[in-house]
Amino acid sequence: MALIEFKNVEKYFGDFHALKNINLEIEEGQVVVLLGPSGSGKSTLIRTINALEKINSGELIVDGRHVDNASNQDLAELRKHVGMVFQHFNLYPHKTVLENVTLAPTKVLKISKAEAEKTAEEYLQYVNMWDKKDSYPGMLSGGQKQRVAIARGLAMHPKLLLFDEPTSALDPETIGDVLEVMQNLAKQGMNMLVVTHEMGFARNVADRIIFMADGEILQDTTDVAGFFDNPTDERAKQFLGKII
Ligand code: ADP
Ligand code: MG
Q1: How is the beta sheet containing 82-85 ordered, strand by strand?
Q2: Atom of ligand 1 nearest to the CA of 212
Q3: Dihedral sign, CA of 155, 161, 164, 168?
Q4: Is pLDDT of 243 > 90?
Q5: Ligand 1 lined by 64 (C-beta under 6 Å)
Q6: Ligand 2 midpoint to CA 154 (Å)
Q7: What is the mean pLDDT of residues 178-189?
Q8: Model confidence over 186-241: pLDDT tens digits?
Q9: What whole-number distance in Å separates Cα of residue 147 and Cα of residue 131?
Q10: Contact of 16 with 41, CB cutoff 8 Å
Q11: Is the CB of 15 under 6 A from ligand 1?
Q12: Is 120 in contact with 179 (CB distance < 8 Å)?
């Protein structure tokens, strides 16, 4: 069974048709990179997966759960298993790094504080942020905040991690550390769907590229090198700056 399945999914914002007949199956163990120009519906698509946006029609099944007609309880359950890393981190500013990482495990998964702190240490070590455990987000660089946000996602032991332009708001010198963490996660088999403009990352790490424009999937391929070297879709060519 696919981990994520979209069947004829449509999404509107008022009259605006944001997702057009999306059909997509993502299997476990795939690192999928979603590319496309600004405004093409990448964030909307990724946000439907944990029901931050509701679809208007079609079917959406994530980890065996029907997101399209889920109860609030089902959605709460789904969100325990699907982590999301945002462009702007969304850390709690008045909580320390350690508190940011232990909050959801203690509140949502109801595990003990001691257990949550053990898990937080493991993942903060993993992203090389344990030495900042007592700092507040305001004292950290963008790249450091994003690594804390990734540790916070991992502490929930998610089945799937969604990344929406995780490095777009970062200073160039801090991007590399974040991409390195993501690359390590990919190597370790984490299921990841990543929206990014980091083409080097996409080329090196993706098992599959999905290219969107104007709310449609125009190309969907596991020939990642081929996509970059010889894109078949005209919009993809333009996007990659390969107009001949
Ligand atoms: P991308 O992430 O590819 O840049 P988005 O998914 O954010 O694109 O947006 C796709 C289109 O949907 C854009 O034209 C955007 O203006 C529109 N859109 C996104 N969210 C909303 C919203 N909440 N209300 C109205 N329009 C929206
Ligand atoms: Mg976006």
Answers
A1: 82-85, 160-164, 192-195, 31-35, 208-213, 216-221
A2: 3
A3: positive
A4: no
A5: no
A6: 22
A7: 96
A8: 999 999 999 999 999 999 999 999 999 999 999 999 999 999 999 999 999 999 98
A9: 13
A10: no
A11: no
A12: no
